[in-house]
Amino acid sequence: MESKQKTTGYYVSKVLTYVFLIILAFIMLIPFAWMISSSLKLEKDVFAFPIQWIPTDPQWSNYSEIWKKVPLVTGFLNSTKLTIIVTILQILTSSFAAYAFAKLEFKGRNLVFMLYVMTISIPWQVYMVPQYIMMTRFHLTDSHIGLILMHTFTATGVFLMRQFYMGIPTDLLEAARIDGLSEYGIYARIMLPLSKAAIATLCITSFTFEWNDFMGPLIYLSSANKKTLQIMLRMFNTQYSSNYALIMAAATVALIPVLVLFAFLQQYFVEGVATSGIKG
Amino acid sequence: MADLNKSDAAKKRGAMKRKKTLVAWSFILPNLIGFFVFTFVPIVFSLFLSLCEWSAGNQGVKFVGFENFRYMFAQDRSFRIALKNTLYYTVVTVPLTLFIALGLAMLMNKPLKGKTFFRSVLFFPYVASLVAVAVVWMALFNPERGPINGLLMSLGVQNPPRWAASQVWAMPTIIGLTIWKGMGYYMVVYLAGLQGVPSELYEAAEIDGANNWEKFLNVTWPCITPTTFFVLMMLVVATFKSYDIMYITTQGGPGEATKVLAYHIFNSAFVSMKFGYASAVAMVLFVIIIALTIFQFKMEKRFTNY
Questions:
Q1: What is the Rg, in whole angstroms, of the alpha carbon atoms belonging to chain A?
Q2: What is the pLDDT of residue B3?
Q3: Do A274 and B20 touch (CB under 8 A)?
Q4: Residue A21 to residue A13: CA distance in whole angstroms
Q5: What is the chain A residue with the closest CA to B261?
Q6: CA B304 → CA A121, A259, B229, distances in Å?
Q7: Which helix (H) or strand (E) holds B61?
Q8: What is the DSSP letter of B60?
Q9: Does A270 contact B188 at a Cβ distance shorter than 8 Å?
Q10: How far is residue A250's CA from residue B91's CA, in Å, rounded to a whole number?
């Protein structure tokens, strides 16, 4: 009798959980669904209520229209360029430095590492003003190089890679050293191949940060031909504020690259958060 | 002869050591130089700048001591409003996000079909572009034509809130967007924490006849204290520093209803061009964040009981 009660209770709670999760998934997805649906409508139908989720006459032309209104292609290319360069440079220099911090003994190591750790919880907002003054002096405002230099060398990147490298057994490296491999050889042939998970995590963080970054390009880039996609999207929103169908089409385009990356690497996204979360 | 050999060996050892050090530095320098110049120096520079008067127009830098801070606390009304708004934003966003994230994580910690799907759906807004999702939210919450108010009106609400256009509702609208965007991330952090809770403890609690709530209170909650502190710290720093979301949605308005501390820094520096004063406000932000971090570390030591 008792066990039967338990099973019905179990099933009820199971069903309730699923119902709740499905409703929740809907709530999470509604903004995206509305965005895509509106992007295929005529302007006059965007705010029609009740909402028509699947447009009867999809306006695919909205998607060709947006490229003509604002130089979105330029924005797309600029964002792609910045994102790829920052991601690659960050992975290379961070993993390089992290190897020395994790596995090499030398004078001043802990002191230099402390420098990184100390700054980890200082948000950019605290030093963005002096940084801007410096960049002006270096003549690096309104340039992609300036943004790349500011975003590549992060304490979090070095910290993440170091934490991962600490877990790789030193015996492995000693064996390689006896076999005559140089430190650079060990880094390239042992450390890098073993740290795919950490690299994937850093790659994702770096990619999403740079692709989505808004305030950096807003403050630093003034020439139209250097602006990024997020800035263009914002411009679009202010210039064509009455044309929601086109705005939604542009927003959809801006979301696609991250969505694609996320679809392929979502496991790494989640695992990356989980591991960096535990280790803090 | 033997002596010579010895010093030779010592020399050789010295040379080896020097080479080792050189190799190590060659690994570090590419990152360190960039980090030092573009992050560390600006941080140190900001300490000095906060004690100066430095406007973009006149090139001169004038050391003014604590004048910026005096003006900030005694005369700058905007600063007080920004500080108040930041506290409002943080105090509401942080606990709500934390509890929703924990609740979701506990739900997702059970064996479920389609777990990956639900987790992805909840997590995706976190990586989605803020500009894009903010644009969508503002359209959904459009006071005149938006579907949210359309729904409210069809449900019989006579005067639905004017959301981002209203002094009262602008902040809650932004808080809603913040929670929606961020909760999936913290849920994943909590999921990792929950997986570390030993299942024997639950079994023991069951033998003692504990119900679900008691199990949560006596097993889950104490075991995930470190995760909670971590989430708390991340959330507090994230809310204290954010201003991009206000810039994109309301430009700090209507009036100064959503103007926060970091927005005040941005405005003082890049709109009013008062770099010294902006840095002084940044120092206040810095001190608050450092103080909270230290406080949380202290509390964590006290409340983590294993």
A1: 24
A2: 56
A3: no
A4: 12
A5: A125
A6: 22, 38, 9
A7: strand B61-63
A8: -
A9: yes
A10: 34
pLDDT confidence of B256, banded at 50, 70, 90? confident
Print the SS3 string covering A46-70: CCCCCCCCCCCCCCCHHHHHHHHHC
Q: Is the pLDDT of residue B155 over 50?
A: yes
**How far is Cα of residue A103 from the mean position of the Cα atoms in its chain?**
28
Quote the tokens at residue B245.
């979301």
Query: In the predicted model, what is the mean pLDDT of residues B229-237?
Result: 89
| A129–B237 CB contact, under 8 Å | no
* SS3 per-residue string spanning chain A: CHHHHHHHHHHHHHHHHHHHHHHHHHHHHHHHHHHHHHHCCCHHHCCCCCCCCCCCCCCCHHHHHHHHHCCHHHHHHHHHHHHHHHHHHHHHHHHHHHHHHHHCCCCCHHHHHHHHHHHCCCCHHHHHHHHHHHHHHCCCCCCHHHHHHHHHCCHHHHHHHHHHHHCCCHHHHHHHHHCCCCHHHHHHHHHHHHCHHHHHHHHHHHHHHHHHCCHHHHHHCCCHHHCCHHHHHHHHHHHCCCCHHHHHHHHHHHHHHHHHHHHHHHHHHHHHHHHHHHHC
* Beta-carbon separation of B46 and A35 below 8 A: no
- Compute the distance between CA of residue A104 and CA of residue B24 in angstroms, rounded to an integer: 6
And the tokens for B254? 């209507």
Interchain CB distance below 8 Å, A47 and B142 = yes
Distance from CA of A220 to the nearest CA of B (A): 10
Q: Looking at residue B55, what DSSP letter applies?
A: B
**Confidence class of residue B95 from pLDDT cuts 50, 70 and 90?**
very high
> At B29, is the secondary structure helix, strand, or coil?
helix
Average pLDDT over residues A223-236: 90
- B133 three-class SS: helix
Determine if the pTM surpasses 0.80.
Answer: yes
Structure tokens at A81: 């360029």
A contacts of B42 (beta carbons < 8 Å)? 127-128, 130-131, 134
* Radius of gyration (C-alpha) of chain B in whole angstroms: 26
pLDDT at B34: 92
Q: Look up residue A122 and give its two tokens.
A: 């200082």
- Interface confidence (ipTM) of the complex: 0.84
Q: Which amino acid is at B95?
A: P
- Partner residue opposite A212 with nearest CB, options B40, B129, B139: B129
Compute the half-sphere exposure of residue B200: CA atoms within 13 Å on the CB side of its CA: 0
Query: Which residues, 6 or more positions from B271, have their beta carbon under 8 angstroms from its beta carbon?
Result: none
Q: Which of A97, A130, A275 sits opposite B45 (nearest CB)?
A: A130
From chain A, the residues in CB contact with B34 under 8 A are 93, 149, 152-153
Residues of A whose CB is below 8 A from B193: 277-278
B-chain residue closest to A266, CA distance: B120
Flag if A47 and B279 touch (Cβ within 8 Å).
no
